Amino acid sequence: MAAIDSEFVPPASPAIASPLVGDAIPARLRRVGVRPRQVLAMCVVGTLTLSLFASRDLPSWANRFADRPGAPTLQAIVERWDDTMGRLGLTRPHETLRAAVAWLLQQGWNGPLQD
User: Fold this and answer.
1) What is the count of structural domains for the chain?
2) N or C: which end of the chain has fewer CB within 10 A?
3) Is residue 77 part of a domain?
């Protein structure tokens, strides 16, 4: 009854209508952007992270450029990088993940989207 008896007081600032979107990003965060340099920095950090922890896939990627100029040089650089990452032990997460997926497939797992 107290809610019915009290008078409605509108908020101090009007609510900003936010568009209906399919993701869960709040409207206040949607209004804040980043600069192109920040996007470039994020791309560089992501590329370096991938080059560190996914070096086992780089040789097969480099083989796709076999018919292009400079391919032997690229392949040699990629192989040296992969060997270096292996010596530093940075290929262990990749190999562990691959081994786990191979084990799951041997156990008969077909993936989450298949019946």
Assistant:
1) 1
2) C
3) yes
Measuring CA to CA, how many Å separate 32 from each of 26, 27, 28, 37? 11, 9, 7, 15
Query: Considering the entire predicted model, what is its pTM?
Result: 0.55
Q: Give Cα 51 to chain centroid, integer Å.
A: 13
Q: What does the CA dihedral 94, 99, 101, 107 come to, rounded to 10 degrees? A: -170
Give a yes or no: residue 70 inside a domain. yes
Per-residue pLDDT, 99: 94
CB within 8 Å of 93: residues ≥ 6 apart: 53
3-state secondary structure of 48: helix
The pLDDT tens digits of the residues spanning 10-20 come to 666 555 655 56
Q: For residue 58, tell me if it sits in a domain.
A: yes
* Beta strand ranges found along 12-97 (DSSP E): none
- The answer to whether residue 26 is domain-embedded is no
